[in-house]
Please model this.
Amino acid sequence: MAGSPVKDEIARRHLGLPAHVLSTSLLTGVGIADVVAALRLCSGQTVLDLECGRGGYGLEVAARTGAQLVGVDFSREAVGQAREQAQRLGRQATFEIGELTGTGLSVGSVEAVMCVDAIQFAQPPEAAYREMSRVLVPGGRAVLTCWEPLDVADERVPARLRGVDLGAGLQVAGFVEIEVVERPDWFAIELALWQEAAALDPGTDLALRSFHEEGVRVLERADRLRRVMATATAG
Model:
């Protein structure tokens, strides 16, 4: 990611992201505002960015709300880049190596959890929802973005996405006030991004080649998915 400025430029342009936001997923600029509103954070509270990647979204949410940021990701490289970005921006934040299913945080240690486009990687998925509930204070907020299959039996959709059911996962973990909203406006922006990725000539750039190949794959299955945002309150 750090060595692919062309990929970053394409993503930032399509998603409408501020220049300082390093994206490792597909949340749009409008989507960031939606997540901020749904988290209901107050200044001084703590938000966990679960699977934070390079930290761009969490840092932006914290800056807009005055919250303290804790980011957790399985990738040592991503955590290192997140720390470097926080330093460049002059932001106070904590980034640690951890898992979707085991953050290493204490019980009831955060007021909010955000998980952007990553819950599908949890093994097993239900453990990640339980972990969110565990680290949240009673009444704390969880906001997740992801894709869900239109048909869970459609084997043309990757298995990890066929297993995504945000509402059911949150309910089993004890969350209340659960709402799952489809966001076709986000999806339309993403598809335009992938169309450009699929059409480009990556040459010898390995990052661009991966980006191009992912664009081709995503476009092949796009009509079998729906883009969603889920919000919930810890019971």
Notes: The chain is about 45% helix and 25% strand. Residues 96 and 181 are 30 Å apart (CA to CA). The first helix runs from residue 5 to 15.
